Amino acid sequence: MADSIPLVDYLVLGDDPHLIAHECTSCGARYFDRRNACAACEGTNFTDVEVPREGVLKTFTIVSFAAPGIPVPFVAGVVDCDGTSVRANVINVDPDPEHVRLGMKVKLATYSVGEDANGVEAVGFGFEPV
Amino acid sequence: MSGDVWILGIHMTKFGKHPDKDTVDLAADAARGALADGGVSMKQMQILAAGNLMAASAGIGQQLQKQIGQTGIPVYNVANACATGATALRTAIMAVKAGEADFGLAVGVEKLAGAGLLAGGSRAQDDGSWSPRGRYGAVAPVDGRIGTETMPGVFAQIGMEYGHRYGGTSFELFARISEKNHAHSTLNPLAAYTKRMTLEQIMNDVMIAYPNTRPMCSANCDGAAAAVVVSDAALKKLSLEQQRRAVKVAASVLTTDPWEEACQILPNVNTLTRNAATRAYEQAGIGPDDLDLVELHDCFATAELVHYDNLGLCEPGGAVDFFNSGASWRDGKTPVNVSGGLESKGHPIAATGIANIWEVCHHLRGEAGPRQIEGARVGLAHVIGLGSACGVHILERAA
Fold first, then answer.
1. What is d(CA B226, CA B52) in angstroms, rounded to the nearest whole number?
2. N- or C-end of chain B: fewer Cβ atoms within 10 A?
3. Domain interval for residue A45
4. What does the pLDDT profile of chain B (399 residues) look like in tens digits?
């Protein structure tokens, strides 16, 4: 049994953690979820592509009220990774508007979500300031 | 013009807490109010479209019939997120346009007082071991771990994204939008909250999701609204008074979000609103400059800003300047949310898309009392439901 498991299947762990997207081979639209067809062109063939690990924070919010079990405040945002938008938290930063700015450069980082009953560690991702 | 559809009667309950009334009571109040306002009865209605999002499978239409009139007409129970009310209205309008009915009734109702934070819904339960589930193969709930699905957080990002693209936004700017709507609400006795708030009060209130503090969020509350629609031909057979008070549906449009890069990452509420507005202006044969008032979907202060732009009330990218010019205050060039908007009036989800039509009709009929926009002839009502669905209606005073 593996010692660790990614929080989501589009996070690839290992020495060089990165995200993968399912790219439509017809039109180039990118998705992170399991697909039935392409919402842009109806194509059904997809290929996995690596998403750049650095990007620009194009929007964010600092969430003070969240679902039970989620530590607050935290920064949620969208990172433009060279044309591919990624939803993520901004981590390893003080969660206040003085430290989180629109347009700031960020890079992918991983963190431990916790261990399950079998000792397997779930690993999540976020983006941290460059 | 032959083929036009008219609002004959329309009503909204007070929005707020109604602990002694259930959803059917509220829906009945709104429906019977709309029928009385139009001078008609259930016996004349040939279609009923009804929405109650939080109990979408319960058949609110039939429940309502059993209290106010079981006449055997077709019922369409609709659910379309925050556009549910607009969808019910449009369903009735389409039935009239299709020639299947001369009279139709649309009702939206919600009981939300005390509902608290509304989140996305993709959360699964944590259990003892990590096992991938769902379309992302997630081993744990992603809401809060990979961004946020809470509504205040989603719409905060929608406003902040506008700031990233065009500049000029700030916490204070968004708070000033809320200040306007709370100021407007003081003239609306049906609003859930009618207290004026200072900018300092708004900015120093509880932060929910930066930059939205509590008064910058729509208020969960109870309420219902209903409208009776009528065909042109049937209206001509009614009294002159009914004809005078009828309000023309100059445009009725519903859209969803077309695919664009990032639209499945953060809901894109912009393009579908732009598309709906463009089509509505075409249908009505007017432009944004012709609007005397607008009720738009300010579910959060951050949302109101982007819809100035999406509805074409300003030049592309010009929403900040538009607001700073004072244009959207009730004495401005294009008064926006003179009802107080969802931030003060409240947002009983399925009622919202008919209550905003009621507000516009009230002004077009010259019946809005102290908050009347003088000489109002044309108004626009907009709602958006995440997922997404956008409803835009343009209404015109009878000539």
1. 12
2. N
3. 4-129
4. 468 999 999 999 999 999 999 999 999 999 999 999 999 999 999 999 999 999 999 999 999 999 999 999 999 999 999 999 999 999 999 999 999 999 999 999 999 998 877 765 444 445 678 999 999 999 999 999 999 999 999 999 999 999 999 999 999 999 999 999 999 999 999 999 999 999 999 999 999 999 999 999 998 999 999 999 999 999 999 999 999 999 999 999 999 999 999 999 999 999 999 999 999 999 999 999 999 999 999 999 999 999 999 999 999 999 999 999 999 999 999 999 999 999 999 999 999 999 999 999 999 999 999 999 999 999 999 999 999 999 999 999 997
| C-alpha–C-alpha distance, residues B284 and B299, integer Å | 26
The residues spanned by each domain of chain B are: 5-114+219-397
Dihedral (C-alpha) B376, B382, B14, B82: value to the nearest 10 degrees?
A: 170
Instruction: Measure the CA–CA gap between B230 and B278, rounded to whole angstroms.
Output: 25
Rounded CA gap, B381 and B358, in Å?
Answer: 9
Is B347 annotated in the active site?
yes
> HSE of B46 in the Cβ direction (CA atoms, 13 Å)?
15
Which residue, among B387, B391, B378, has the nearest Cα to B285 in the 3D structure? B378
**Residue of A4, A8, A106 to mutate, testing the B interface (most B Cβ within 10 Å of its Cβ):** A8
DSSP state of A103: T
CATH 3.90.180.10 fits B5-114+219-397, yes or no: no
User: Cis (ω within 30 of 0) for the bond into B211?
Assistant: yes
User: Which positions 198-237 of B are in contact with A (Cβ < 8 Å)?
Assistant: 206-212
CB contact under 8 A, B130 and A88: no
Q: How far apart are CA B392 and CA B399, in angstroms?
A: 22
Of B184, B193, B152, which is closest to residue B336 (Cα–Cα)? B184
Q: Which residues of B touch A32 (CB under 8 A)?
A: 136, 264
**Residue contacts between A and B (CB atoms, under 8 Å):** 152
Specify the number of domains making up chain A.
Answer: 1
CA-based nearest distance B279→chain A, Å: 21
* DSSP H or E segment with residue A86: strand A84-90
ipTM of the complex as predicted: 0.96
